[in-house]
Amino acid sequence: MKNLIILLFLITACQVHAQTELPEVSLKNIKGKKINLQELSKDKPVVLSFWATWCTPCMRELDAIKEDYTEKQNEFGFELVAIATDDARTKQRVKTESLGRSWPYEILLDTRNEIIRALGNPQIPLTLIVKNNKIVYRHSSFTPGAEDELFEEFQKHLN
């Protein structure tokens, strides 16, 4: 029993640590260019939105953010990177879907779900604000209007 308690404590401690820092991972974008996640959030906040082509709430969230994306970029430097969690079989749909919806975001592919696993296997849609490789805001699921809260949270972390 004592060993079981210690094991559960260690698992919980690892998950808490994994959930506060962005894992060191490089992913390819839909054009095949490798992007280092650690470089994205140096000295400025960036939004990471985890989604998949089969996830309707994910698509609705990214569409809702797109409505004000250019305005918020110009107003306070809002930046979103959409990380597709589709596996190798469905990754071709990612490019088609994102281009078809005219999303202005950098689209990355996490076909092996490296980041999701490092974050403790959360459900998608998952939206994070990361600054200096630290997760400073986390939101799961999507409801209309959640994008406004995201914009507000992003502004809080600009300093």
Task: Provide the descriptors you would attach to this structure in a database record.
single chain, 44% helix, 7 strands, alpha/beta, globular, 6 helices, Glutaredoxin, 159 residues, seven-stranded mixed beta sheet, disordered N terminus
Structural account:
The protein is an alpha/beta fold and 159 residues long. It has a single domain (2-156), classed as 3-Layer(aba) Sandwich (Glutaredoxin), CATH 3.40.30. It is 44% helix and 23% strand. It has 6 helices and 7 strands; from the N terminus they run αββαβαβαβαββα. It has a 7-stranded mixed β-sheet. Helix 3 crosses helix 6 (146-156). The protein is globular and about 40 Å long. Residues 3-18 have low confidence and may be disordered.
CATH topology: Glutaredoxin
Given the C-alpha coordinates, what overall shape results?
A: globular
* Secondary structure tally, helices: 6
Q: Output the CATH homologous superfamily.
A: Glutaredoxin
Strand content: 15-25%
What is the N-to-C order of secondary-structure elements (H for helix, E for strand)? HEEHEHEHEHEEH
Helix content: 40-55%
Please identify the top-level CATH class: Alpha Beta
User: How many domains?
Assistant: 1
Q: Largest sheet, described in full? A: 7 strands, mixed
Coarse structural class: alpha/beta
Low-confidence stretches: 3-18
Strand line-up in the sheet with most strands = 2-1-5-4-3-6-7
> Compute the gyration radius: what is it?
16 Å
Average pLDDT value?
A: 87
Cα separation of the termini: 47 Å
Got a strand count? 7
CATH architecture identity: 3-Layer(aba) Sandwich
